[in-house]
């Protein structure tokens, strides 16, 4: 599917889980009682600079390739998308493990995805960046998978 620019008329063509993810994100970013903490993100949303990607079940190895493709596509297009552009990626997450997974399990899943991306990276890992899951993790090379 590639990058998605959200417009209400485009949503009707999405699978229900994708449409639901966008609607929940929209409700969160527009919530006046609990304002979204990132002002540039709300500006990007209002200006339609945000782009969205949808990836399958994050436990499947095929999701790493889907994620890599989205990152590559966004990297190539980002300079043309506006000052407040960001990529928001939603994963197809079964409801039963949304209810049962603990934060630490989601965190491990995230690191597994990043490690999978790292394995695909054609560049050597920078020596000053820790290899273990670490708060200082950064994407530090052009994204080309």
Structural notes for this entry:
The chain has helices spanning 8-11, 16-30, 39-46, 62-77, 95-100, 103-120; strands spanning 51-55, 87-91. The chain is built from six helices and two strands, in the order H-H-H-E-H-E-H-H. A two-stranded parallel sheet has the order 1-2. The chain has one domain. Helix 4 packs across helix 6 (103-120). It is mainly alpha-helical and 145 residues long. It comes from Bacillus smithii 7_3_47FAA. It holds the Pfam family YqcI_YcgG. This is YqcI/YcgG family protein.
Radius of gyration: 16 Å
Secondary structural class: mainly alpha
Give the averaged pLDDT, no decimals.
Answer: 87
Uncertain spans, ≥5 residues at pLDDT below 50? none
How far apart the termini lie comes to 17 Å
Helical content (DSSP H or I, runs of 4+):
40-55%
Percent of residues in beta strands: 5-15%
Element-by-element helix/strand order:
HHHEHEHH
Q: What's the tally of helices?
A: 6
Largest sheet: 2 strands, parallel
Widest β-sheet, arrangement of strands: 1-2
Highlighted features:
two-stranded parallel sheet, mainly alpha, 2 strands, YqcI/YcgG family protein, Uncharacterised_YqcI/YcgG, 145 residues
Summarize the structure.
By secondary structure, the chain is mainly α. The protein has helices at 8-11, 16-30, 39-46, 62-77, 95-100, 103-120, and strands spanning 51-55, 87-91. It is globular and about 45 Å long.
Helices and strands in order, then pairings?
Layout (H helix, E strand, L loop, with lengths): L7 H4 L4 H15 L8 H8 L4 E5 L6 H16 L9 E5 L3 H6 L2 H18 L25
Parallel strand pairs: 1-2
Protein name: YqcI/YcgG family protein
InterPro entries: Uncharacterised_YqcI/YcgG
